[in-house]
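> forwarded from #structure-qc
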């Protein structure tokens, strides 16, 4: 038997309602802020991610699914959503349109890493991107959108917002010098990755999960002490906007995020609902991303949330999502009434009800068993007498009640019952 590849997961019909609820919440929240959906290809030219994501990241160095297509071109399954949106923004001339440009996405993405709870090789993300504004108010809007989304999932009281600024390329260069000076005595004791990061991008050492390397970061200099005047003013303005909006946060100078394109604001929403403190949503500003891609420099800010991690968190709390149960099963007692049952089921569906009828030539008793297993509220029984009278016997699955209802009034009867109960 062929089995699912390691690091992938099936979404079964019994789980679909929760996925749909999270995705629908994401759509509704993003659209409240004026964001519209964008869809980009599941694979792109590899160079896009080398330039956009950054060649010092674990994603590019270790985790990308890269291969040659039949034309000999190097293509990569997207490991995240931002680079593809940036490419589409430039390629379709959206820089010359109305700004800010706001878009959200719901995508699958791929990274070759060790599978664990909430972290798969094929995973799914909800993300939002805003292009064209360098103002701290754009950062605030992205964070407010993210916060409202988590609140709508009943996760607000279980998540914490951590906030930092990693400055612009000018003040970050000075900070990198300070980190070089601080980490130099410890380089030989660090993991292989951090020894490479020390040379290419010492900020990435602060994001290392190796316990030995984490020990060396405890006394490291803080980026906040090296911010230039403009970056400091931007960060202070953002904090004042969040204060005014009533959004609680913790300034955390250790947040750097895992992608090279970030600048100035970086943030994460974390929770301990799914074990050790885990990030369920993260983002920040990336004003230099388009410039890295040889496009006209355009300021941008955004975030992404892992759907799998969100689902684990939602399942751990009293989330307001329940699966919609089917409404009515139409049972025919013989061949002729089964035909009429199919017609009635189709009429009920046209009026927005979830209706089924027998497709297995089951006995009436077996049809009732099937309807009970699937959680139907009503069974509408049709036989020779019912067809002659033009009315059905409506039986309640939760008890022994039964009523006679005319065929043409079944939909209204069921709706009224649902509304009153």
């Amino acid at each position: 038997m062929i089995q699912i590849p390691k690091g992938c997961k099936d979404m079964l019909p019994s789980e679909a309602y929760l996925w749909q609820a999270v995705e629908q919440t994401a759509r509704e929240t993003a659209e409240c802020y004026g964001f519209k959906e964008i869809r980009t290809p599941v694979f792109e030219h590899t160079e896009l991610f080398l330039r956009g994501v950054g060649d010092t990241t674990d994603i590019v160095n270790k985790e990308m699914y890269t291969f040659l297509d039949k034309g000999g071109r190097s293509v990569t399954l997207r490991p995240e959503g931002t680079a593809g949106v940036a490419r589409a923004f430039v390629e379709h001339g959206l820089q010359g349109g109305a700004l800010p440009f706001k878009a959200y996405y719901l995508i699958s993405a791929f990274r070759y890493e060790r599978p664990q709870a909430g972290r798969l090789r094929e995973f799914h993300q909800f993300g939002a991107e805003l292009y064209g504004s360098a103002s701290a108010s754009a950062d605030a809007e992205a964070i407010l959108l993210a916060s409202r989304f988590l609140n709508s999932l009943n996760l607000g009281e279980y998540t914490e917002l951590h906030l930092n600024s990693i400055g612009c390329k000018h003040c970050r260069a000075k900070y990198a010098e300070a980190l070089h000076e601080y980490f130099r005595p410890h380089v030989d004791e660090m993991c292989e990755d951090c020894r490479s990061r020390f040379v290419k991008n010492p900020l990435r050492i602060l994001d290392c999960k190796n316990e030995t390397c984490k020990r060396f970061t405890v006394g490291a200099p803080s980026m906040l002490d090296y911010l230039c005047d403009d970056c400091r003013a931007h960060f202070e303005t953002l904090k004042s906007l969040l204060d005014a909006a009533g959004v609680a946060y913790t300034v955390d100078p250790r947040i750097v995020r895992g992608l090279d394109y970030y600048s100035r604001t970086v943030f994460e929403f974390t929770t301990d609902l799914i074990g050790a403190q885990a990030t369920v949503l993260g983002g920040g500003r990336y004003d230099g991303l388009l410039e890295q891609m040889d496009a006209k420099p355009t300021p941008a800010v955004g975030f992404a949330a892992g759907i799998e991690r969100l689902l684990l968190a939602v399942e751990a709390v009293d989330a307001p999502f329940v699966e919609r149960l089917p409404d009515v099963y139409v049972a025919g007692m013989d061949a002729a009434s089964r035909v009429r049952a199919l017609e009635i089921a189709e009429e009920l569906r046209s009026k927005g009800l979830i209706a089924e009828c027998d497709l297995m030539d089951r006995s009436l008793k077996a049809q009732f068993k099937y309807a009970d297993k699937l959680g139907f509220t009503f069974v509408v029984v049709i036989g020779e007498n019912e067809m002659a009278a033009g009315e059905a016997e409506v039986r309640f699955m939760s008890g022994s009640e039964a009523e006679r209802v005319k065929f043409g009034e079944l939909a209204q009867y069921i709706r009224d019952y649902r509304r009153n109960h």
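QC bot note: The domain at 13-168+228-316 is CATH 3.30.930.10 (BirA Bifunctional Protein; domain 2). The longest strand covers residues 101-110.
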